[in-house]
Structure formats: structure tokens, C-alpha cells
Amino acid sequence: MANAAQNQHNLGENDERWRNVQSLRELFHGRFSEREAETIINHFHGNFQQAVNFGFEATQAEIEDVLGNGDGWQLVIYVRQHQVVQDLNRRYEITKEIRQFSCGLCNTMWWRKVPTRKMVSKCRTCKKRKKALPRDKEWGWARFNCVCGNEYHHFGAMDIRMLRGSNGVQLSGKSKSLCFRCNQYLVEPTEILPPRRRPRRSLPKGAHCTAYNCYKRYIPTVPEPIVPVCVHPRSLPITVLVAANSHTSTGSTVDTFMSQDDLITDINP
């Protein structure tokens, strides 16, 4: 029993050390080989922050003491002169963003936390890499701000060119929602909310939609405005409103090691 626990502990340590090695390589844009990065990490007994500080601040003598008298020092000088790495040096971190991805071929959408400098994620169905959707192409649970002063949340889309109106004409621009408070204005979404920023998804009592395709359409009374199209998932025949562009790797950087955290992708209310 004790041996099993010890083995599990060792596996955890090895996994953490591997992640630190890949993290150091990612921070320095793959300029360190895996062996060199591992040597630096091991030199500081697995302390990642000390290894990062070493990469940015160590003297030539210290570098050669750890990596040997080969190309280690010239490598570090080159890395430090790289403009992107200089920017990272100011922050000592790799920033991440929660971004939306989609695959038109597989009709799937997902959210993923990815490095800001490499916003790419792989479709789980076809395994093709996709670029993050631009903010003005996202859709999902959204924030709305009506001119009457009401702020509310509902499904919205920043680009509805894939959809058609009741007359069959292709639509454009953002989706619209009837304000739940005043019932007088059609409001466009202000932003699409990533899963971890979403408030509890519930609609006020009496909320209704006048769109021709709404799965629970409300017949409007004059002079209530008519919503051009409903983008609630239950009202749409497709999941993907905007297909993300495919990513072609240039091989210029090490594959992203960061955990691209899966986020809640459930689009049902």
C-alpha cells in the first residue's frame, strides 16, 4: 500500500517536472532544447520561477556552469534579444485568453483557454487545428444593454450572415433581442460571454421572442417590434454560425504545452 502511494507520488512529480520543462521551452519560444530546459529545471530542483529568472538574468559564467561551454551562452543572448521574449520578460508570464472555436465541417463549437500568442485549438472530431474566432464573429450567451437602461443576458450572435430572414433574404450584422423590460426596443449584443464569465443562465418571467423561427414564438401585438431571427440553439438548424479558419503550422515554435482547459460548451439553456 505504501509502495503504491509512493509510486503515485513519483508519477505526480515527474508529470509536474515535464510540464515545467515544456513551460520553459514555451516561454523562450522553443529556443532551448528539451535537454537544455530539463538541465536548467533540474539545476533549480524543479523550481520553475528560479529557472525563468536564470534564463533572463544569469551571467555568462553561470550559464556555462549549468549548460556547459558550448553554445549555451550564445543561445541565451539570442533569446534575450528576441523582441517577443523581451516583452515576456516584463511580465514573467505567458498570458492566456478564453476563446471560441468552431469547425464548420463537423458542425461543432467549443471554448478553450489558449496562449494569447498562439490561439489555436484542435477539433476533437476531425482533429484539424482551428484558429480562434475573432470577437466580432462569436455567438452564444451574450450581454445586452438597452437604451431604456436595462442590462440583461440572452443568446446572441455578433455575425448572422449564415442565417436568413422570414422572407428568405440573407441577414447581416448582429442578432437582435427584444428588451425584456420595456418591450419596445430591439437590442444588439454588447459582447459574448465565455463560460467562466457567464452569470446564471435564466430568463426573466414573461420574456418572449417575436422571431419567425423561435422555438417558442410569441405572436407580437402592434406596435411591438419583430425580431429578425432567433439565435437560441433550439431555434437553429445548425450549431456553427461562423466557421473558424484552419491553422497551418509553420513549425517555428514548439507545440503549445499549456493545458488548453476545456470549458463548458453546453449551449442549451
UniProtKB/TrEMBL annotation:
Any Pfam family the entry gives = UPF0515
Q: Which GO cellular component terms are attached?
A: cytoplasmic ribonucleoprotein granule; nucleus
Keyword hit for Nucleus: yes
Localization in the cell: Cytoplasm, Cytoplasmic ribonucleoprotein granule; Nucleus
GO molecular function terms noted in the UniProt entry: ribosome binding; sequence-specific mRNA binding
Membrane-spanning intervals of the chain: none
Q: What does the UniProt keyword field contain?
A: Cytoplasm, Nucleus, RNA-binding
> Which biological process terms from the Gene Ontology are attached to this UniProt entry?
innate immune response; viral translational frameshifting
Q: Where does it primarily localize?
A: cytoplasm
Q: Which family does it belong to?
A: Belongs to the SHFL family.
Q: What is this protein called?
A: Uncharacterized protein
Which species expresses this protein natively? Dreissena polymorpha (Zebra mussel)
